[in-house]
Design goal:
The chain is mainly beta and 495 residues long. The protein has one helix and 37 strands. The protein has two domains: 382 residues, YVTN repeat-like/Quinoprotein amine dehydrogenase (Methylamine Dehydrogenase, Chain H), CATH 2.130.10; 92 residues, Roll (SH3 type barrels), CATH 2.30.30. Helix content is 3%, strand content 34%. The chain is globular. The N terminus is likely disordered.
């Protein structure tokens, strides 16, 4: 049915979208967190709250033979923002509902670094870390303003002098002069030049509307981009925020059933770190510019938007810092799409990203600064996930253990192994073949004992062994020893 474009209808649509984006992630309280692995983790310092007791995770979806995500705990938690220490990639900070969390071991365990006592549910919209002094961290708390820590998250102070709006949606830091930051609010852009001590509004040329996203040109930090809601599109400043001009040529969508061109709402902006003329904008679709935002064209023809209704949104965009032709786009908290060729083609990159229900990514993907093949993402209710893009070499079942990398020498054929972990850990699947596409015939749980009768077989980022156990249908099947940094089977003395 064709729907006429009336002022009332457009106003209702604007109100509904603003309401949903402001509130959808804030209606679930922060739950207790859990370490994701049974391995020994880096100790939390004595002056930091102790790790949170574990919770019981739900079942996972079976992975595909490509790359799969692994859950790092915080199950039942909404993680809106993630940052990683640029000098020590084992240190991560996660912004959730009413809490900031810290990990010292690459996300394997977490402790609360800051808890917010909110009259109503709140969430940490953005976290940024000083690229030159990583002990300094900034957080935008949606309903409460901006806070800052200068001691690795141990203590925090409010930095709201000069701010007149406390609905915070975006926060970015100048990569070369990190005392300069910009924050996007429900009422425009504010800027500080002294590390948050003082703020001033910089909206010359900007509509007085909500700023949903911001980014800074990494090679020329005087250039800043702001993504607006209510169909106002994208604005650009080339003078440190002193003035702004719209950059919406081609940045249009056919919104739902209205079939009328209108500027997209821009919820995400990403700039190629090697060529800042190449940009991507996410709203009701993904758009690309090759001339610094002067013109745009849509690149989301292969997306399946049916999961999110007639007006889905691209909430986050991320670019591989080493291979910028690799782009990740998150659709409405449900799917991650990946392109390997600058947006010409896309494929679903979400396998393994869900535990309880299909509520997936809400934070941007972040990359390990020392190894960008390691990715992290925060989700809507399922905590934090990680994945590694490097695959183990594909060999034959007669491959030597050293061919499987990372010290796969602890197990041998015709010996016994025990499934590691505690009773709350996820089960180990047994399959008909050493192939993640093959049928799952059994689930091994921690403390179960198996005999290794064939292998190792290195494929699909995993190391497979054929195991024997009286509970396995047919008596035997293939199971994975682990991924690149987890051992799921451990040696066991034969009974």
């Amino acid at each position: 049915m064709k729907i006429k474009r009336t002022p009332i209808r457009i106003a209702l649509l604007v109100f509904l979208t603003l309401f949903l984006h402001a509130c959808s992630s804030s209606n679930t309280s922060q739950s207790e967190m859990l370490p994701a692995s049974s391995q020994t983790s880096t100790a939390i310092p004595s002056n930091t709250p102790q790790p949170i007791p574990t919770d019981t995770p739900g079942p996972t979806l079976s992975p595909t033979p490509e790359i799969t995500w692994r859950n790092l705990g915080l199950v039942n938690s909404y993680i809106h923002s993630l940052v990683i220490d640029p000098l020590n990639p084992l240190i991560l900070y996660a912004g959730g509902n009413d809490v900031i969390l810290k990990s010292l071991d690459g996300g394997e365990s977490w402790a609360k670094a800051r808890i917010f006592s909110a009259v109503s549910p709140d969430h940490v919209s953005e976290l940024v870390i000083d690229p030159l002094t990583p002990s300094t961290i900034y957080a935008a708390v949606y309903n409460q303003g901006l806070i800052k820590s200068t001691d690795d998250g141990e203590t925090w102070q409010n930095i709201n002098r000069g701010l007149i709006d406390f609905k915070f949606l975006a926060l970015v830091i100048d990569p070369l002069s990190p005392n300069i930051l910009y924050t996007g609010t429900a009422n425009g852009v504010f800027k500080t030049t002294d590390g948050g001590e003082n703020w001033q509004q910089v909206i010359n040329g900007l509509p007085k509307e909500a700023i949903y996203s911001m980014t800074i040109d990494p090679q020329n930090p005087s250039t800043i981009y702001a993504g607006l809601g209510t169909g106002s599109g994208l604005y650009k400043s080339t003078d440190d925020g002193a003035s702004w001009v719209p950059k919406n040529y081609g940045l249009f969508v056919l919104a739902g059933d209205m079939k009328v061109k209108a500027p997209t709402w821009v919820f995400a902006i990403a700039i190629d770190p090697q060529n800042p003329d190449i940009m991507y904008a996410g709203g009701h679709g993904v758009f690309k510019s090759i001339d610094g935002g002067e013109s745009w064209f849509a690149i989301n023809n292969e997306f399946d938007f049916t999961l999110n209704g007639p007006m889905p949104s691209i909430d986050n965009l991320s670019i591989d810092p080493v291979h910028p032709e690799i782009i990740y786009a998150e659709v409405g908290g449900s799917v991650i799409y990946r392109s390997l060729n600058g947006g010409e083609n896309w494929s679903d990159f979400s396998e393994g990203l869900f535990l309880y229900w299909r509520e997936g990514p809400i934070s941007p993907i972040i990359f390990d600064p020392t190894n960008p093949e390691i990715l992290y993402v925060g989700t809507r209710g399922n905590g934090v996930f990680t994945t590694r893009l490097t695959k183990l070499p594909t060999t034959t079942p007669t491959a030597k253990p050293e061919d499987c990398t990372n010290g796969w020498t602890q197990l041998n054929v015709n010996t016994y192994a025990v499934v590691s972990g505690d009773e709350n850990d996820l089960p180990n699947r047994v399959r008909t073949e050493a192939d993640l596409d093959s049928e799952i015939i059994y689930q091994l749980y921690p403390a179960e004992i198996v005999k290794l009768i064939q292998g190792p077989f290195c494929t699909d980022n995993l190391v497979f062994w054929k195991v024997e156990n009286q509970n396995i249908p047919g008596g035997s099947g293939w199971t994975a020893e682990g991924d690149l940094n987890d051992y799921w089977l451990a040696p066991y003395s034969s009974p």
